[in-house]
Amino acid sequence: MAYTPMMQQYLQVKSEYQDAFLFFRLGDFYEMFFDDALKASQLLEITLTSRDGGQADRIPMCGVPYHSAAGYIDQLIARGHKVAICEQMEDAKQKKGMVRREVVRLITPGTHTDGKGLDSGSNMFLGAAEETASGYSLAYADVSTGEAAARHIFGGAKALIEEARSLRLRELVVSDQLSLLLSGMDQELILSEEPGADAPAGDERVAGCPKELHGSILLLLSYINRTQKQTLPHIQPFRHIETDRLLSIDFHSKRNLELTEPIRGGGRSGTLLWLLDETATAMGSRKLRQWLQQPLAERGPIEARQRMTAAFITEFFTRDAVTDLLKEVYDLERLSGKISFGSANGRDLAQLRNSLLKVPAIIGELTGSDSDVLRAFGAELDPCEEAAELLTAISEDPPLSPKDGGVIRDGYSERLDEYRYASRNGKDWIAQLEAAERQRTGIKSLKIGYNRVFGYYIEVTKSNLHLADLERYERKQTLANAERFITPELKEKETLILTAEEESLALEYELFSGIREQAKRFIPRIQTLASRLSELDVFISFASVAEKYRFTKPSFHDGTAISIKEGRHPVVEKMLNRQGYVPNDCEMPEDRNMLLITGPNMSGKSTYMRQIALTVIMAQTGSYVPTASACLPVTDQIFTRIGAADDLTSGQSTFMVEMMESRYAITHATDRSLLLFDEIGRGTSTYDGMALAQAMIEYVHEEIGANTLFSTHYHELTALSESLDRLANIHASAMEQSGKVVFLHKMKQGPADKSYGIHVAELAELPAPIIQRAHELLREFESDRKKDIQQEPAQLSLFDDGGAQSEAAEAIRNARIPEMTPLEALQLLNELQQKLNS
Ligand code: ADP
Ligand code: MG
Asked: Cα separation of 151 and 412, whole Å?
């Protein structure tokens, strides 16, 4: 038996969209069949039914109403699926037999621009990658805003995946071969295969990028064309990301430093972005996020940005005035996107116009300021007058749907005005008729109403019927307590009014569509304006934040030395409400550019290291920094590695991951990089970890020469400063107060006091013989260690809760010292020693 014609049509369409849920339009529903229906009914929790398809077995089916489909689409996309929207291309009422159906759009995670998941503060990137001779080329675009860029990735597929994660690509378009390779390496990456043929090779949007990158760009454009079924003019020329002109921060470092997302996930509270973002627009917020993720690495451009920040600090009246204006500027980038998609409604166009109308005032504020850089910036802004002019056609407060009328303002089109006049006039006439009829009949409650079935009618209540002019009135409808009538003249006017209204709506929609189409011409100019305004917004935010948190302007030099006076971790400081945050200096001259940081747990080592990295990053975005003063080199890359034992992100973090991340850092770092190694090597047994840590320090010292901060709980490593001349020890200080350890959070020169634990034990009034013996043993351990590192234990520190000593520490903790005789105490100590030596 053959399938019914409709099922045949379905199967034909479905065969081209195997990897998507096919939403097949049937009247007011989108229906799904077969496997799609089985899966979707589960995922979306909708009822699974079945349908006769001409075969013995019924076909599984489920559906969602057309008007509420958006929510279901959101859900499927959020889970990484694709949805093909298949519409009826002909009016079912007018067509006999089967209507033609076509997929009008394939919605994918990277192209879903109108979903709820669209966050105004961040970009949603769709990527495409292709193999090149020396690595990969990667192109990516935000389909909602049109921003597009491409870069080369040196290295293997691993580096490509890192970058994809770093950019938070929603979807990566690749060839089928590459798809096979990548899917084996990263299950979370959403991959789409694209043969890549139909993008015109002459597309000028590739022009700004080297030839090597064209393949991935064309692949991306081709995918967009194929899925969106239109060439989207708002996708901008691809910007070439020249990695050597930017400060590169790999995925792990971004995460560890909590630049834009907190380690523990959710929201952005506690991140650097959260602290710095006082932008007035969503565009500004996205720009700031981009800048934080990709700071500059050239002095000239950095200093140019600094001048803008500085100008807004002094010109605070201009800053306030421009901020107020920016608050009234809508998201020009996403509005351009909607125009490009043809999905902009009247309100969108009104918002665009109202935003553009603010620009002359912004320009006026800037050009009228006392700052050269602001005047120059203002003079270069393009107010896009022609676009604003075009959009004056749109009424002040249009309704959501352009088909409801009221979108075009009065006075724009003579013909439209005539229709409107006729319809308004007709309505006035009806109001007058009502008054006249009331008077003539003396029925005060007489009224003229309208409904879709009968049109205009005169309504008289039953109690007043005897007064009605039944000779002229023609009965039309009887209600419980009223009668409805019509008159010939009423019907005549009705025709006039209704035709005028119908014509007026049709004409309005035509005019509206025309304007929306014409607006496409201005998209590139509006996008440029949007980009400039978002920069302005970021500079203003930098200035406000600098003032609020007492940041200062960092200076740059061409060497590699770091010199920071009274640096702070801006986020921790904010969390502590500024109270009690202890500022710290950081001096790393060229001949002493590796610091080994020791100190007890919770003494502030990690915070210190992070604050230096954050200062470097902020400085290279053009922001001021949380220091009393800072003189910095231009850093090319930052690597932050956190020992697995200290890694908060997940229980899954293993020593292997720690080592892989370290390897990545060490193989990529240069002498202009900043390396932060926080308790590396802690994830394995003591000697093992210590040996690795030492080897890494030596390697970085000898082979790389990067500015390096290395925190460690392996006290033994502090001896390295004797053999490595650029390595210096510093430590996080602590002291005792009323029998408690107090962390001073102050970094001091030299290694931490090794016998710190014994001092604390002394403070706790452990019997004197124990203390004495402990000191003795410590000295022994130390000299033994020098003899043979492989056979001796590491230090016994009360603050060391990791590795082999934890058992011993536990025993000491549990010991009831006051109840012990000195001998018993000595026995315990002896036992502990044996345990540790075994
Ligand atoms: P460590 O890495 O040495 O274990 P952390 O850097 O994690 O210590 O710091 C522990 C806590 O101490 C932080 O969460 C913070 O609250 C506080 N802290 C760190 N540095 C400072 C500082 N400079 N001033 C005030 N508090 C600090
Ligand atoms: Mg730490």
From this structure: 47
Sheet of 637-642, strands arranged across: 248-249, 637-642, 674-678, 707-711, 594-598, 727-737, 740-749
Joined together, the tokens standing for residue 147 give 């921003």
pLDDT band at 646 (very low <50, low <70, confident <90, very high): low
Range of the domain at 478: 414-515
Confidence band for 427, pLDDT divided at 50, 70 and 90:
confident
Residue 611: give its domain's CATH number.
3.40.50.300
Number of domains comprising the chain: 6
Is residue 693 domain-shared with residue 721, that is, in the same domain?
A: yes
Q: Decide: 433 in ligand 1 pocket, CB within 6 A.
A: no
> Given 547, 569, 588, which residue is the final one in a domain?
547
C-beta 744 within 6 A of ligand 1: no
The answer to whether the CB of 733 is under 6 A from ligand 1 is: no
Question: How many whole angstroms from 582 Cα to the centroid of ligand 1?
Answer: 9
> Band of the pLDDT at 632, cuts 50, 70, 90?
very high
Same domain (yes/no): 455, 329 = no
Q: Does 581 contact ligand 1 (Cβ within 6 A)?
A: yes
Q: Which of 465, 534, 555 is nearest to 288 (CA)?
A: 534
The values of phi and psi at residue 364, to 5°, are -60, -45
Please check whether residues 560 and 671 belong to one and the same domain: yes
Residues 90 and 182 in one domain: no
Query: Distance between CA atoms of 148 and 126, rounded to whole angstroms?
Result: 9
